[in-house]
Design a protein that fits this description.
CATH superfamily of the largest domain in chain A: Chloramphenicol acetyltransferase-like domain
CATH architecture of the largest domain in chain B: 3-Layer(aba) Sandwich
Oligomer: heterodimer
Largest sheet of chain A: 6 strands, mixed
Largest interface: A-B, 15 and 12 residues
CATH topology of the largest domain in chain A: Chloramphenicol Acetyltransferase
CATH topology of the largest domain in chain B: Rossmann fold
Shape of chain A: globular
Number of helices of chain B: 12
Structural class of chain A: alpha+beta
Strand content of chain A: 15-25%
Number of domains of chain A: 3
Helix content of chain B: 25-40%
Radius of gyration of chain A: 26 Å
Radius of gyration of chain B: 20 Å
Chain lengths: ~425, ~325
């Protein structure tokens, strides 16, 4: 009997997956565990391994096409096994070509079919039934999108007449098209990553009460420390230095230490509770072609600058290749966005939920500053912290930024 | 009049009071006489009641169990001490095929009113053959009653109830509990077999724990309370017959269930508790998957670090429960 090749769920909230590449052609032999195809999700590309040894046949979903999670996309036959049409379920999965000139429609998960439906706990199911609410209209906050009782209670509290949160632009797409002369623009389809960025940041700006705190730090000592640490880096067999610390590596480390110094800021807002985190997991925004990712460096307070630097390089490379896995970008309590390399002196950033803050880091700028009434040349860097006021109050944010500045201005303190 | 004594002293007191009250009660086991028992539980009872009622037995668990079954059929109330619960394996024929069956096979014309005491559990560096928790093995057998008291108070009261009981009762005593202390009344009293005890009331999650895991769960509950997680701890006390009603009521209140036990996790008592809740009216009240924290799938290691790692510890209970309640599992 032929083995079904299933489109797996590789990411939370994933309803469909697009097959970006088949590594094995129809009719070719494939070994169990070998890479069979790649799927592209909203956030990343993942390689999927063959579930069995045999010959790949009945490929139902071609490259560039998407299919619902859990549907069969091909079959693997045993050597010499007759290819029967009966082996293929009569109900072929719904596939949808991504037309190059039109934004891809989001394919609804086939939750209306009998026996399928949203994941929900027994209690959530019972409460929804009692409140005459449809589970498909409730978004789950539990692991893998599971609907828990709290989600149902919140949904039940929502007034029926309240409009759904508006994420779409005020005008329909066509109306916007019409504002510009035909032929004067190209249409770029919105891919999964773009859509995710749009939804998450809109949600953040609309629902997270941001406030902003700025501080300017002297980074003369940091520059000197960086130079001497880089000069002293051990070299590998090819005489290449084992590390090359960036200013951002110091920023990550300082933020990790500052969160330990001010634990009240190392939190996340969780609706009816605030999670106070023990370790400093710091996200770092990485710009990629067409968008950005925020991989998380875990337990920053326990890591050396060299370790942070190496880990950051590896994560950035994976981000650019769109190979980050969810465990590499989920979680964290804060993030760092650094636009200093573009000469931006200061800016404010939007919090990436569920983080409680984000630090916008500007460029190092030489300025004359008064010291004992005399102008002295100093290198300064301005950082702006955006805080989620639900979880972090002004004084706590200020304490965090103050601790951060003390570490940045005197990196030696981070050794203590 | 109540005062603080150890778990081991509570056993000795129960045995002494039962023997004073009923001449049919006698004790048997290896080195329980002059030596006072491998864990000094019988102590000086031999001096109070003589060698006819506190009998040192040869090293044959099967033989001792056979004597106990025969004596019970003949109207005595034997209380047999195994040196280690692990040696129950040697006596399985008498326990499982005779003691548990005879009342049923003889149409209720006989009873087998015996008690077997099993020092059990890990944590003493006694390695794989002297550290197991085989309670779930015996709890699988209809015709036996299996109890696991966790406090000196319950130990004394349940042991007296076990000696009164007309059926064979298996008593699992965690070795690390022998020196723990608690308030125990001086007079004889009974704590019923088959009734669980809510050791701590809470609203967010129910732990059903057995034996020493009750204490570890209570300690974990204190840590979690500081984080705002209110844990209810149920001391199961009796594995067979199991008090499912108390667990159902608790789960309906807290909506979450964790089972914490030292026996091997797979096919252990936690599997039975989980299944009973999944089959019950409490199913519709569950707001998270059921969590089992049990012993590792391994013989208990001799290495003390690994020995600790092989059974649930407080930190692991805290982490497991925290994940369960904050929705990460």
């Amino acid at each position: 009997m032929a083995v079904e090749v299933i489109l797996p769920k590789v990411d939370m909230d994933m309803a469909t997956g697009k097959i970006s590449k088949w590594h094995v052609r129809e009719g070719e032999r494939v070994a169990k565990g070998a890479v069979l195809f790649e799927i592209e999700t909203d956030k990343a590309a993942m390689e999927i391994e063959a579930p069995a040894d045999g010959i790949l046949r009945n490929v139902l979903v071609g490259e560039g096409l998407s299919a619902p999670v859990g549907s069969a996309v091909a079959y693997i036959y045993a050597e010499g096994e007759a290819v029967s049409a009966a082996a293929v379920k009569t109900e072929a999965p719904k596939t949808e070509a991504l037309a190059p000139t039109k934004a891809a429609a989001v394919v609804q998960p086939s939750s209306s079919k009998d026996g399928e439906g949203p994941r929900a706990t027994p209690l959530a199911r019972r409460l929804a039934k009692e409140a005459s609410l449809s589970l498909s209209n409730i978004s789950g906050s539990g692991p893998r999108g599971r609907i828990v009782a709290e989600d149902v209670r919140k949904a039940a509290e929502k007034p029926v007449s309240a409009p759904a949160p508006v994420l779409a632009p005020a005008q329909p797409d066509d109306a916007i098209h019409k504002l510009y002369q035909s032929g004067s623009f190209e249409v770029q389809p919105v891919d999964g990553m773009r859509r995710t960025i749009a939804q998450r940041l809109t949600l953040s700006k609309q629902t997270v009460p941001h406030f902003y705190l700025s501080v300017t730090a002297n980074i003369g000592k940091l520059m000197a420390a960086r130079e001497s640490l880089n000069a002293s880096a051990p070299r590998d067999a090819e005489k290449k230095p084992l590390w090359r610390l960036s200013i951002n590596d110091f920023v990550i480390k300082a933020m990790g230490r500052a969160l330990q110094r001010v634990p009240a800021a190392n939190v996340t807002w969780a609706g009816d509770a605030i999670l106070r985190h023990r370790v400093s997991d710091v996200g770092v925004a990485v710009a990629v072609e067409g968008g950005l990712f925020t991989p998380v460096i875990r337990a920053v307070e326990t890591k050396t600058l060299a370790a942070i630097s190496q880990e950051m390089k590896a994560l950035a490379a994976k981000a650019r290749a769109r190979k980050l896995v969810p465990s590499e970008y989920q979680g964290g309590t804060t993030a760092i966005s650094n636009l200093g390399m573009f000469g931006i002196e200061e800016f404010t950033a939007i919090i990436n939920p569920p983080h409680a803050s984000i630090l916008a880091v500007g460029a190092g700028v030489e300025r004359f500053v008064p010291v004992n009434g005399q102008p002295v040349l100093a290198t300064q860097m301005t950082c702006t912290l955006s805080c989620d006021h639900r979880a972090v109050d002004g004084a706590v944010g200020a304490e965090l930024l103050q601790a951060f500045r003390s570490f940045i201005e005197d990196p030696l303190l981070m050794l203590a | 009049m109540s005062r603080e004594i150890t778990y081991a002293q509570a056993i000795q007191e129960a045995l002494g009071q039962a023997m004073e009250a009923d001449p049919a009660v006698f004790l048997m086991g290896e080195d329980i006489g002059v030596y006072g028992g491998a864990f000094q539980v019988t102590g000086d009872l031999v001096h109070r009641f003589g060698e006819d009622r506190v009998m040192d037995a040869p090293i044959s668990e099967l033989g001792q169990a056979g004597v106990a079954v025969g004596a019970a059929l003949a109207g005595c109330k034997p209380v047999l001490e195994f040196q280690f619960s692990d040696f129950a394996t040697l006596a399985m024929e008498q326990i499982v095929n005779q003691a548990a069956k005879l009342r049923f096979m003889l149409g209720g014309k006989v009873n087998v009113p015996l008690v077997m005491r099993f020092p059990a559990g890990s944590g003493t560096g006694a390695a794989a053959q002297h550290s197991q928790s085989l309670d779930a093995w015996l709890a699988h057998v209809p015709g036996l009653k299996v109890i696991q008291p966790s406090t000196p108070y319950d130990m004394k009261g349940m042991l007296l109830a076990a000696i009164d009981d007309p059926d064979p009762v298996m008593v699992f005593e965690h070795k690390l509990l022998y020196k723990t202390k608690g308030e125990v009344p001086e007079e004889a009293y009974r704590v019923p077999i088959g009734k669980a005890h809510v050791a701590r009331e809470g609203s967010d999650v129910t732990i059903v724990a057995t034996s020493i895991m009750v204490h570890k769960s209570l300690e974990a509950a204190e840590t979690l309370a500081a984080e705002g997680i209110d844990v209810e701890v149920i001391d199961l006390r009796t594995l067979r017959p199991m008090d499912t009603a108390t667990i159902i009521e608790s789960v309906k209140k807290t909506t979450r269930l964790a089972c914490v036990y030292e026996g091997v996790k797979t096919l252990g008592i936690g599997a039975e508790i989980s299944a009973r809740i999944a089959e019950s009216e409490a199913f519709d009240y569950l707001d998270a998957p059921i969590l089992r924290l049990g012993g590792a799938e391994s013989p208990i290691p001799y290495n003390p670090v690994l020995e600790k790692a092989a059974v649930p510890q407080v930190q692991g209970i805290v982490e497991g429960l925290r994940n369960l309640v904050t929705g990460r599992t």
